[in-house]
Design a protein that fits this description.
heterotrimer, A mainly alpha, B alpha/beta, C alpha/beta, B: alpha/beta, 6-stranded mixed beta sheet, 4-stranded antiparallel beta sheet, 10 helices, 23% strand, C: alpha/beta, 38% helix
Chain lengths: 279, 266, 275
């Protein structure tokens, strides 16, 4: 016997995952393609200035006559790069700190978790400014500061999940059969928490792109000539009435990215939801 | 029957910080071949005794001895011996098996973690070790009456009674001397309850195990243990042979405990 | 006078598996029935069906009819959620194995009890606290003042189950579904709570559906039982005849197991006795 309601719900869930993956996948492919090919070079100023959309320039040109489609594609690469490397830093740092904090007892646990609480209240922008001041403006500075921001979120989540796993009978059973802490981490903690972490970092992947755009908009992100969606928006600010498409293209890309990762993360969350999984 | 002392507690007091004492002046010994039942209701301190035996807690005063040696949390060598010789079965087989691991890996874990695989001198290659581990796991699963293909499945594919069998296989795979059982059948159905009790009795004989059972259920204790001690509010109020305590309880508390058990009409 | 009619009740899992298979029974006002079975027997799902509390992913067919105060039959399976909310508490109610989830962890016990009591009896202020105290006394809580001022986590397991019973009875229901209400309690507390349930159901002339895996407990409180196995009724009749002369092979095994565990407690039992 089938249940129409349940089935339609299930299909919806899969749809979120599918649409999310398609959107995010499209942005990743567009970004990666820009490494080998863009319609024009991103700093090619041969076009007419502020040209509207046409066959030769699908998204028109900016005020220096550069092709906006090429620049938007290149912006996708920046977003993907930032997302990937920031998440990587966030995962490595966050998982390490989180698991250590999960194992820590009383005083040291209090110290770590209150430090994390203070850090999470610390705005990424401010952190980015500090990093930029220390290292100079570069894409790497943006990635490092965003990565640190993500690591704090991952660390807090990991700490909480680790404590939960360590409180189970099966973690105690492992300890009582002589399993070392390192082995417990790889045998029992990580396999039981990775889906929750994955959902969190999937969302952070998109938010990292958004954070980089904010930094670039403020001039703290990737320096010119690299084209980030944030710097595209900043450049388009003065010409927004004469050539709205130069703002719409990067702006819409950001919106699509955020919607895409939200769908993806939601789809993953429901996919891994213990209630919909078989026990 | 030998009466080697496995565990002994003398004058053990235990108190969590600033709260009322959990255990007061506990004295008893666990001898080889003599199963011991520890009966008590919630808050009686029976789980604390179990944690003391496992070295998870240190007594506030008094001494816990394991094979003649005082248990010391900082003695790593002693801990290794303790983990090898003493294994545990938990009450809830749903939470005591890691849901992300296959049964084969779960049962093999003590062999690997306790260093038994690496000790087998004749096993030189990695594939030999793997094969040896697989055989040990299979024989442990067979001795709890589970088929060999159990190894490649996940715990959620089994019923409560079968899961408790897996937990028992895991506990005996490294050939311990002592099995500590914390309410081993309380969360099971009546029919599987009986089968698990039978299984534990068989294993005790075939593997020379000594079992200590902590339970609020007197019938579990009666099924498994020759000796019983009754705990109330952290004190041992009665101690002796199980049969004697069941047939002729000397304290009012034990009598009322016996009376409270719902019995089947004749 | 019949109060509850369960006819051809079946419950299907989302994948179409039969979890409860054509269960039939009826219950008169003031009478009791036990549903006995092991895990997976469908006894809990049957109880939830009567309460209209099946998880939405499960589908039920057949009918579960309860007679309301104005002698009308209400089919729980087809009645809307809002209409069911009206009858839950005042007509049918439940006590579960674990009372903690049914109590609000952040509200003191006294206030939790006050809500349904004041609504049901239409009283306010001082009268309510008196009624709360009375409700706590009626479930044999010896210090109603202390318990009323406590949060659920601050009281003992036995007290918590008594509070859950008081909550269930606050609106004078005529039918109580008790699903393993004493399984997680210590033996002495279990005996007290069983006595309490027995007394209350008797005094208020309530009907009782008692769900348990434990034949000894069931035999203490009900006379008639349904033995369930894998969602199917395999035997029904009086507890006495089930225990003395079980007909179905499964119930025979169930009774034999229970008998053997029970015999362990007999003073004539010697350690090492086989079966």
């Amino acid at each position: 016997m089938t249940q129409p309601l349940v089935q339609s719900v299930k299909e919806n869930l899969n749809k979120r995952l599918i649409f999310g993956s398609i959107i995010v996948g499209f942005i990743i492919v567009a970004g990666l393609t820009s490494i080998f090919w863009t319609p024009y070079k991103i700093d090619d100023t041969s076009g007419l200035r502020l040209e509207p959309s046409s066959l030769s320039h699908l998204l028109g040109t900016d005020k220096l006559g550069r092709d906006l489609l090429s620049r938007t594609m290149s912006g996708a690469l920046v977003a993907v790069e930032v997302g990937f490397f920031a998440v990587l830093i966030g995962l490595v740092l966050g998982l390490t700190i989180g698991i250590l904090a999960g194992y820590a007892q009383k005083k040291s646990d209090d110290a770590i978790s209150s430090t994390l609480d203070i850090l999470i209240a610390f705005p990424t922008l401010l952190l980015a400014m500090l990093v930029v001041t220390a290292r100079g403006q570069s894409l790497a500075s943006a990635i490092i500061s965003i990565g640190i921001g993500i690591s704090i979120i991952v660390a807090r989540l990991t700490r909480q999940l680790t404590k939960k796993i360590l409180a189970t009978d099966f973690a105690l059973a492992a300890k009582l059969s002589g399993t070392s802490r390192i082995r417990v981490v790889f045998l029992h903690i990580l396999p039981n928490i990775w889906h929750t972490i994955l959902v969190a970092v999937a969302l952070q992947f998109g938010l990292a792109g958004l954070a980089e755009a904010s930094l670039s908009y403020l001039g703290l992100g990737a320096p010119p000539p690299s084209a980030s969606w944030g710097s595209l928006l900043q450049e388009a600010q003065s010409t927004i009435y004469t050539s709205p498409i130069s703002a719409i293209a990067p702006g819409l890309s950001l919106v699509v990215l955020v919607i895409g990762v939200n769908l993806l993360a939601d789809g993953l969350r429901i996919r891994f939801d213990p209630q919909s999984r078989q026990r | 029957m030998t009466t080697d002392e496995l565990f002994s507690l003398s004058g053990v007091h235990f108190q969590y910080q600033k709260s009322l004492p959990t255990l007061v002046d506990i004295n008893f010994a666990l001898h080889t071949g003599v199963n011991l039942g520890i009966v008590g209701e919630s808050g009686s301190g029976k789980s604390t005794i179990l944690k003391l035996l496992l070295g998870l807690l240190t007594p506030s005063s008094g001494e816990v001895r394991f094979i003649g040696e005082s248990l010391n949390a900082k003695n790593r060598k002693q801990e290794k011996v303790l983990r090898r010789k003493v294994q545990v079965i938990f009450q809830d087989p749903y939470s005591s098996l890691d849901p992300s691991q296959k049964v084969g890996a779960l049962v093999a874990e003590p062999l690997k973690s306790l260093g038994l695989v690496d000790e087998q001198a004749e096993l030189s290659s990695a594939s030999d070790k793997k094969e040896w581990t697989r055989e040990q796991v299979e024989s442990a699963l067979n001795s709890v009456d589970l088929p060999s293909d159990t190894q490649s499945r996940f715990p959620h594919q089994f019923s409560g009674g079968q899961r408790q069998r897996i937990a028992i296989a895991r506990a005996i795979v490294a050939n311990p001397q002592v099995l500590l059982a914390d309410e081993p059948v309380s969360s099971l159905d009546v029919t599987s309850r009986e089968l698990i009790l039978e299984l534990l009795k068989d294993l005790q004989k075939s593997r020379g195990l000594t079992i200590a059972v902590v339970s609020h259920d007197l019938s579990t204790i009666a099924a498994l243990c020759q000796e019983t001690l009754v705990l109330q509010g952290g004190k041992v109020i009665e101690q002796g042979s199980t049969r004697q305590i069941l047939s002729n309880p000397t304290t009012e508390y034990t009598t009322s405990l016996m009376k409270a058990i719902p019995r089947l009409p004749r | 006078m019949t109060l509850l009619k369960v006819e051809n009740l079946s419950v299907y899992s989302p994948s179409g598996e039969l979890l409860v298979d054509e269960i039939n029974f009826s219950l008169d006002k003031g009478s009791r029935i036990g549903l006995v079975g092991e895990s997976g027997s469908g006894k809990t799902l049957t109880g939830l069906s009567i309460l209209g509390l099946l998880p939405p992913s499960l589908r039920a067919t057949g009918s579960v009819q309860i007679k309301d105060q104005s002698e009308r039959w209400i089919d729980v399976l087809t009645t809307s959620e809002s209409a069911l909310n009206q009858i839950r508490g005042s007509l049918v109610t439940a006590v579960f194995q674990d009372p903690l989830p049914s109590l609000d962890p952040l509200m003191k016990v006294g206030r939790q009890l006050a809500l349904p009591i004041s609504r049901h009896q239409g009283i306010r202020g001082k009268e309510v606290s008196a009624a709360v105290e009375e409700a706590l006394l009626s479930v044999k809580i010896s210090q109603p003042g202390r318990v009323a001022r406590s949060f659920p986590f601050e009281i003992s397991g036995g007290e918590r189950q008594r509070v859950a019973i008081a909550m269930a009875l606050a609106c004078d229901p005529s039918l109580l579904i008790a699903d393993e209400p004493t399984t997680s309690l210590d033996v002495q507390v279990q005996a007290e709570v069983l006595d309490l349930l027995d007394e209350i159901v008797e005094k208020r002339n309530m009907s009782l559906v008692f769900i348990s895996h434990d034949l000894a407990v069931v035999s203490k409180i009900v006379g008639e039982v349904l033995v369930l196995q894998k969602g199917r009724t395999v035997e029904n009749g009086s507890v006495g005849s089930l225990l003395s002369n079980p007909i179905n092979p499964y119930s025979r095994e169930l009774v034999a197991s229970a008998r053997r565990l029970d015999a362990l407690l007999d003073s004539s039992f010697e350690f090492g006795d086989e079966r």
